[in-house]
Write a structure and sequence with these properties.
CATH architecture: 3-Layer(aba) Sandwich
CATH superfamily: Peptidyl-tRNA hydrolase
Structural class: alpha/beta
Strand order of the largest sheet: 2-3-4-1-5-7-6
Order of helices and strands: HEHEEEHEEHEHHHH
Mean pLDDT: 92
CATH topology: Rossmann fold
Radius of gyration: 16 Å
CATH class: Alpha Beta
Amino acid sequence: MFSKWFRKKSGVSWIIVGLGNPDEKYQGTRHNMGFLALDYLAKDKGVNVTKSKFQGLTATAKYGEEQVLFLKPLTYMNRSGNSVGEAAKFYKVPADHVIVLCDDITLAPGTIRLREKGSAGGHNGLKSIISQLGSDGFLRIRIGIGGDAPSGDELVDYVLGKPSKEDMEAVQSRYPDIAAAVDLMTRGEFTLAQSKYNGKGRQ
C-alpha cells in the first residue's frame, strides 16, 4: 500500500488492464476477452479507452475516491508487460494495485476466476506482466473461453478464433459481475469479491 501523499500527488492509484491483440483481425476473438471486458468497464464509467499512452490506449475514471487508469496494451499479447510495466513505473503503482482482465482456456464461457497472485498458468500475457513488474502479486480476473477447446497445434487457432453466439452471450452475462468485482477490489475487498463472483455465476 502507498501513502495518502502519493495518492494526491500522482492521481492514479490503480491500473486496470485488459489483455488482447490490437489488429482488426483479432477483434472479437477469444484471446481478446480482456479488451472486451475493459471496454465494458470503461463504458460503465462513461469513458472511452482511446488516449494513446504507455504503448497502449488509456482512459481514467473514478472508483469511489480512487483514481483508476484503464489500459489496453497495444504491444501484442506476448509483450503486454512492456505497456503495463511502463504505466506502473510512471505512476509508481505497486503490483498489488494492478488488476488484469484476461482469457482463460481452462474455464468454460460464463465462468470467471479471481486470483490475488500466482503463476501465469501458461498465459503469455500474464507471463510478460510478471516479468516486467518483477512480481506475480497482481490481481487478475480470468474469463472463461474454454469448455471443448482443442489441444496441441489446434489450440492457437481456437484462441484466435471467434466464439459462438452462445459462448459470447455467456461471457457477456458476467460483465456486470466483473464490474462489481473490480469495484470491491479497488476498495480492498478482494476476498469478498472472490467469494461472491468466482465460478459459473447465477443461473
